[in-house]
Amino acid sequence: MTWLALWDRASGFVPLSDPEQLTTEGDRLLAQGSLMVEFQLPDGPSPRPLLAFAQSGIWPLRLALTVLPNGAVSFVLDQLGQVAHHVFAGCDTSRIETLRLVYAWDAPCGWGRISLECLSTGRMQTQPVARPKPWRVADLLAVLRPNNACRSRREVSLLGLSDRPEPIGPQPGLPGDLKVSTSEGDRPICDLRPGDKILTEDGRDVPLIAAVSHRVLMAGTAHPIQLRAPYLGARQNVTLSAAQRLLVHGAEVTYLFGTSAALVRAGDLPMPFAVQGIAAPKVDRLWQLVLPMGEPFQAAGLWIPSLTFAALRHAPEQIAASLAAKLPTSQIRRQNSASYPCLGAFDAETLLQARVA
Predict the structure, then answer these.
(1) Rounded CA gap, 269 and 306, in Å?
(2) Domain for residue 173, yes or no?
(3) Which of 32, 35, 4, 5 is nearest to 133 (CA)?
(4) CA nearest to 70, candidates 95, 92, 96
(5) What is the C-alpha to C-alpha distance for residues 74 and 49, in angstroms, rounded to an integer?
(6) One domain, residues 156 and 18
(7) Domain range spanning residue 127?
C-alpha cells in the first residue's frame, strides 16, 4: 500500500504508481484510502471555494472544500446521495497559515474520518464519518487532475491520494542514514532501537522510546531540500523534509529574539545560501526519534527537536490515528510541547544574515 498520485503547483499531476495501471483500473473501487489537501487560508469577506468537484451519471459525486469568512473550513462529500458534511472551527486569518485536511476511509470496516491540522501550531480537529462509501479510482484521479469539473484556487498547494488511511499529526522528516549522537557514538537513525541512549541538548543520555518511520509524500510543505554545511552547525550537507524543524542556539538568537534558543523550519531558511532544492523521489521513508520529554537530540552537528505528540495527548482518538498509536500511552502523555518559539521565514533569514555577518 502506498501513495498513488499527487498534484502540486510545481509539478502538476504526477502518478506515483504505474500510470497505465491507474488508467486501465479507473473503474476499480478503492475500498480504503486517503485524500489529502494542503492549503492556505484566503482573506476575504465572503466564502471562498478552494476545491470543487461534481459529476452526474451512474456515479454521482460532489466534493466541496470552502473557507468561510470567519476562518471556518467546510467540507462536503456527497456520494450517491450519502452526505458527509462538517464545518471545522475558525482558524486565525490574521496570519498566513498552512492547513492540512485529510479525508480517510475504510469502507469494509464502516469507518471514516475527516481531520484538519494547522501545521504551525499542531492544533488538530477530527470528525468521524459513519459508513463511508468506496471511491472509484477514476473519480479520485479526476479530483487531482485540473479540468473543467474540478476547480482549485491558488491557495491550494497540494493534493495527494493514498490507498490506505494515512496517519494524522506530526510526521518524520529525516533520512534513514542520518547519524545521531548516542552514548556509543554516532549511529544511523534507522539502526536505533528502544532503550538506546541518546545525547540530548543538556548533556544527558536519555533512553529512546522509539525510532518511528513512515513513507512520506515529499511535496507541498514536506518537499525535499538540502541543508548546506556549515549552516546551523551542520558537519555535512543533510537532505531532509522542508517541514522538519531545527533548534538554533547562540548569542544572535538571544540578541534578536530574547530567548536562549529558537526553532526554524528547514524550508524557511534562505535559498540558495543555507538550503537548496534537490531532485528526489516523490515518496520516501523518513525517520524521527521519540524521546521521553520531547528532548532535542544531535545529528550531524545539528540540534533537532524529537517528535512529540503533546498536542494530541488529551484526545485518545487522535493519538490512535497518529504515528503514536503503537507507542506506550503513559510515556506519550508525559511529553512536553516545544518550549521554544518557532521563527517565521523573515526572522529565519534575519538570523542567518546576522550569523554570516
Answers:
(1) 20
(2) no
(3) 32
(4) 92
(5) 9
(6) yes
(7) 3-162
| Domain match, 35 and 139 both | yes
pLDDT at 11: 87
pLDDT at 335: 75
Query: So what's the pLDDT on residue 99?
Result: 94
264 in a structural domain: yes
Q: Are both 215 and 324 inside the same structural domain?
A: yes
17 and 151 fall within a common domain? yes
CB atoms within 10 A of CB 99: 23
b/e per residue 257-286 (b: at least 16 CB within 10 A): beeebbbbbbbbbbeeebbeeeeeebbbeb
**140 and 266 inside one domain:** no
In this prediction, residue 94 carries a pLDDT of 61
Name the pLDDT band for 26 (thresholds 50, 70, 90). low
pLDDT at 339: 77
Number of Cβ within a 10 Å radius of residue 330: 7
Query: Residue 341: beta bridge partners?
Result: none
Give residue 302's pLDDT: 96
Identify the CATH number of the domain in which residue 19 sits: 2.60.120
DSSP at 268: G
Residue 34 is predicted with a pLDDT of 97
Question: b or e along 177-211 (b: 16 or more beta carbons within 10 Å of the residue's beta carbon)?
Answer: ebbbbbeeeebebeebeeebebbbeeeeebebbbb
